[in-house]
Amino acid sequence: MRKNSSSVMDARSTRVRTLVIFVSLASFLLLTLVRLFDLQIRQHKRLTAGAIRQHQRKIPLPTKRGSILDRNGKELAVSLQSYSVFAHPSFVEDVSQTSSELSSLLDIPEEVISKKLLSQRSFVWIKRRVDPDKGKAFLERKLPGIFSVEESKRYYPKQELASHVLGFVGLDDKGLEGLEFSHNHYLVGSTQYPVGYSDALGRIAFREAEADVTLENCDLILTVDETIQYIAERALEKSVARSKARAGTIIVMDPQTGQILAMADRPAFNPNHYAAYPPAFRRNRAITDCYEPGSTFKVIMAAGVLEEGLMSPAERIYCGMGGITLNGFHIRDYKKYGWLSFSEVLQNSSNVGAIKAASRLGKERFNDYIRRFGFGERTGIELPGEVRGMVRNPRDWSSISLAAVSIGQEVSVTPLQLLVAFCSIANGGALMRPYLIQTIRGPHGEIIRESSPQIIRRSISPATASTMTDMLIQVVQQGTGRNAAIPGYTVAGKTGTSQKLEGRTGGYSHSKVVASFAGFVPAHSPRLAVLVTIDEPKIGSWGGTLAAPVFAEVAQQSMLHLETRFREGDPRALGGRRADAPGKAN
Questions:
Q1: What are the structural domains, with CATH classification, of the chain?
Q2: Helix, strand or coil for residue 524?
Q3: Sheet of strand 194-198: strand arrangement
Q4: If you placed Cys at 259, which of 223, 369, 414, 463 could pair as Cys (CB 3.0 to 4.6 Å)?
Q5: Positive or negative: CA dihedral 239, 241, 244, 248
Q6: Among residues 295, 350, 459, 541, which one is catalytic?
Q7: What is the 8-class DSSP label of residue 583?
């Protein structure tokens, strides 16, 4: 009985163990099937995408940038098709031969290419943005391990023309200066990504770019007139060369709207090869360089005196026969004047007369008018790097600061600030915001943004502006600005000759000056306002003999151009829309 009982128990134990093993195996198999179902069915797409990403390589390539056009639709900056050449060194069969062929095709030293092809990297650029002709010749060679992708290349068809306004782009096609920088987010298109796959050793084989990319770039249509820009640059180039000056600036503006028609600087640079020029050549001096304006600033003082009713143009001032002493400082005129009317003080640019007139205005009120005309603040032009200039608080003025500021010393301005102030007188007393961009046009021709004239504030009354205009006409007809006269037009303007501060001594230089002239034409219905500055001329030194003739040349030729376009029926020759009447300004 015991034996049978033991046998039964052993058999039952065996069945239990077998059942446990079977259940365990079945459970493991079931879990395996569930896991396989999860991996191969439920997570198939995610895991496949992850596997692809592990072997996939992408290189971002910017697509074509928007164009920059002048007010008449002429191209100033465009993007052209080009090719960028790259290599997978591990796929190159003959480094020496490949380097030799690429060197002759791409104008790169053979040793430079060899060094890249012998590197341990899986991908190297050989040359970015190759000209289309060279790119096509390269494609015909079909060199092992050498590939290319299409890229756009920024090109400035007018070379140096308006280079300081346009700026330039870097190797990554991003704007670095000028409008290319400040409006990069409008100009830049979306990015395309050429795709390649790497093998187990990390070697990459590229194929063509992914599907076509929809461009979302915009075009900029400027207020600049290409012809007027050329007139200004040519005249400035001749003047700087003739006077052997360090630099120069010309700005042409529509005083009624604030539109910039031309902005020229010398020295200049070619944005197609910007790296070949020193940074000083690429600086837009019209908005980044400050200088003491000298006698052109007497216009601001005179406007304040007239607006406050402290003097009339006919009131006479004794000019001390050429000199005045203030707190031990002797200030001279370049001629010995006795009695002059207030109008003649401006006409002959008498320092003594200006100082005596400013004494009636006082430093607080004078500072108020300086601020009203926009000095000490940025104009708001759509360019990077604009500076405020330097206008000190009256509480920091010394005992002779009122006299110094009245003749354009102890204050620094940018060329654009000064021209904007003159435009305020020209248009009846409204301080206009200057602007360069007329329209931003979308990729399908739609208008993204359109600029219009904007009055910042009123600087002086229309009556005072009219009186100031008459006084500035006399400067050109009978005073220091005779060389700015234009046959057939009435010109209003003012000369300036300012000594520059010496860096070491802190005093004024006897040899380094800035010669300038600012004016507008026709005087009583102005179409153009022009500022000319010649920095550190070595031949000549006076604004009336250096800058005024340049003004006359630029203004006369520009007026002829505008009149020609007007006769041809082009409404853009009028300078676009006008602002609201100055009387509506705050």
A1: 226-273+281-584 (3.40.710.10)
A2: coil
A3: 56-58, 194-198, 204-209
A4: 223
A5: positive
A6: 295
A7: G
Closest alpha carbon to 460 in 382, 386, 361, 348: 361
Identify the top-confidence range among 37-46, 141-150, 454-463, 499-508.
Answer: 454-463
Contact 437, 179 (CB under 8 A): yes
Q: Which of 162, 190, 374, 177 is nearest to 264 (CA)?
A: 162
Q: What are residue 310's phi and psi, to 5 degrees? A: -85, -20
Active site residue 5: no
Question: How many whole angstroms separate alpha carbon 351 and alpha carbon 510?
Answer: 17
Whether 223 and 573 have beta carbons less than 8 Å apart is answered as no
Q: What pLDDT was estimated at residue 171?
A: 79
Kindly indicate the confidence band of residue 584, based on its pLDDT and cuts at 50, 70 and 90.
Answer: very low
| Beta-sheet pairing, 68-69 with 219-222 | parallel
Q: Locate tokens 């070619």: which residue?
A: 270
- pLDDT at residue 577 greater than cutoff 50: no
Distance (Å, rounded) from C-alpha 212 to C-alpha 214?
Answer: 7
- At 208 the pLDDT is 44
Residue 136 confidence (pLDDT) above 90: no
Name the token pair of 467: 């009186």
Find tokens 């005045």 and name the residue: 324
pTM exceeding 0.85: no
Residue type, 66: G
What's the token pair of residue 85? 């050449």
